[in-house]
Amino acid sequence: MEKYKCDIKGLILVFKDFRDLVFEDLPQYGEFCLLELKDGRLTAGAWHSDNEKQGEKISGYFLRGLADKVLSDDVARWHRLNCYDLSKCMEEDDTEIINLKADKDKGYSVEVKDFKSWRDGEFPKSEQYCLLILMDGSLSGGRWERWRIDDNDGQFEHSSGGFNISKEKVWAWTALGDDEFFLAEEENENERLKEEELNKNPTTDSTLFKYGTDISVYYEKALEKLKKDYPWATLTQMKKKTVWEITPKCGKYVFGQVEVIYDGRKIVHEWKDGSTAEEFIDFLYKYAEDKVANSDPEKKFKYGREIKPYLEKAYENVKKQYHWLDKDMIKKDQYCYYSIMQLDGDWEFVSIYGNGSFSECECGSAEEFIEKVENDYRQIALQANKVAAVYEVPFGHVEIHGWNLERYAVSRMRTGDYKVNVTAGDRVAGGSREFFITPDCFEAASYDEFLDRYLKIVPGESFGLTKKDLLKDEELKSFFGY
C-alpha cells in the first residue's frame, strides 16, 4: 500500500531561502545541502570546509560520493536539506506544491519538479545525480549506481565510505543537473549502442579469416603444430590460459579476448600482432606453449594415477622435521583433500573442498604437486601443536619495505619445538607470517651459529630484526634454551 497520497508526477517543491556561500553564513560541517552552481545547474552534497577564517578565500567542497565532489568556487548558493519532513504534506491527495524555507524568505527560490518513482517502472539513468524524497519524508540526494547494464536495479551513492541509499528507502526521485560523471556515462552508452548497431552485420577480412569464423578451426591448426614438439598437447591444455574468440568489434570480425566488466559491458581486447590467418595460428602456438610444455603426463604422473603415492611422499617429507605430525591430524582437517580426476579429457591433480566442489591444482610435475601438499601438511602440523609459552621480542620503530613491524613473537610448542610469528603493516594494510624453526637449527654448537641458521628462515632484511638486534636480547637467548 502506498504510504503517501499526493500525486508524484504533479508534485513541485519550491525551495526558498537560498544562501550565498560566504564566511558569515556557511553550512555546518557535513551538512547536506541543495546547491545552485554558478552555471545554473542544481546538485547536492555534504559540506566539507578546509578553512573558515575571516578575510581568507573560502576553501572547501560539497561531497557527493567517493571521489565525487563540488568545489566551493563552483557554487553560487546553497540551501540546507537536513531540516525537512514532508510526511504530513504528502499525506494529502490534493497536495501539488510544497513551499520549503528555513528561517526567512530572502526572495530567491528554485522549483524542483518532474518527480518519478521506480514503483512505476521508471529509473534514473546510470550515474545520474538525483534529489530524493525518502520514505520517512526527509530529503536527500545521490548518484544512481546501476548494478547490471540490462537490469533496472541499483542504489543511490550518497557519500564516501560506502554509504548508499537503497531504492526501497526512496519514495520519489528527480534528476538534478548533468555533470561530468553522467555525461561520460552517457557517452559510453551512446558508444555502446553505436557499437551494437555496427556489429549487427560485421564484415570479414578474407585474409585474416582464411579458414572462416569458427575459432575452433584455428585452435586445431595450432594444436597440430604443438603436437610436433609436444606430442601430449591437447586443446584443454591450450585453453588453460584466457581463450581467444572471433568476435565483432567496430563492425568487423576480429580475433580477440572478451572481458566482461563490473557493469555487464563487454570489452574486446583485439589481437593486432599480424594480418593473416597463419600469423594468428603461429601466435596461438606461442601463446599456449608454456601451458602445454608444463603438462607432460609422464612428468606429472610419474608415480601413477592413484593419489595415494603422492600423498605418502608428501607426508614422509614433512614428517622428517615436523616429527609430531600423524595421519589422524590430516584426516581431521576438513580442507585437505586431493584427488586425480579427468577434466575435459585431461587428467589433473585437484583439491576437493568440504562442500564437494573442487579446483585444479595446476601443477606441471609430480614434484610440484607434492610440494603443494607438503605446504598444507606443515600448516596442519603447526596448528595441531599447542603453544606452551610465548616470548614477545621487544623492538623500537622498525620499518620493513614501507610497513612497520607490529609483532615479533617466538612460541615454544608442546613438543619443545619453536615457531615465530611476524606481523607488519601500515594504516590501511597488513599481514602476518608464521615460520617453523627446523630442528637442525638447534644442532648448532653455539648461539651465534644458531642465529645464522635461524636467520635463513626468518631473514632480518625481510622481517625486521637482524642478527645484531637478536644477539643483545638475553631473554630471547634463554627462551631458545641457550
What's the alpha carbon Rg, rounded to whole Å?
33 Å
**How much helix, percentage-wise, in residues?**
25-40%
Class by alpha and beta content: alpha+beta
Number of helical stretches of at least 4 residues: 13
Query: Quick one: biggest sheet?
Result: 6 strands, antiparallel
Compute the number of strand runs.
25
Total domain units: 4
Instruction: Provide the β-strand percentage band.
Output: 25-35%
Q: Largest sheet, order of strands side by side?
A: 2-7-3-4-5-6
Nearest-integer average pLDDT: 89
> Gap between N and C termini, in Å?
78 Å
- Low-confidence runs of at least 5 consecutive residues: none
Shape: extended
User: What quaternary form is this?
Assistant: single chain
Topology:
Elements (H helix, E strand, L loop, with lengths): L11 E4 L3 E2 L11 E6 L4 E10 L7 E7 L2 E4 L3 E6 L6 H4 L6 E4 L9 E3 L16 E6 L4 E8 L7 E4 L6 E3 L3 E6 L4 H19 L16 H15 L5 H4 L6 E5 L2 E9 L5 E5 L6 H17 L3 H4 L7 H12 L7 H6 L4 E7 L2 E7 L5 E3 L5 H19 L2 E6 L6 E2 L2 E11 L4 E8 L4 E8 L9 H11 L2 H4 L3 H5 L2 H6 L3
Helix pairs in contact: 3-5, 7-9
Structure write-up:
It is built from 13 helices and 25 strands. Strand 18 (337-343) and strand 19 (346-352) form a beta hairpin. The chain is extended, with a radius of gyration of 33 Å. The strands form six sheets. Strands 2-7-3-4-5-6 form a six-stranded antiparallel β-sheet, with no helix packed on it. Strands 13-12-11-10-14 form a five-stranded antiparallel β-sheet, with no helix packed on it. The chain has four domains: 12-181, no CATH class; 215-295, no CATH class; 299-384, no CATH class; 387-479, no CATH class. The termini are far apart. It is of the alpha+beta class and 482 residues long.
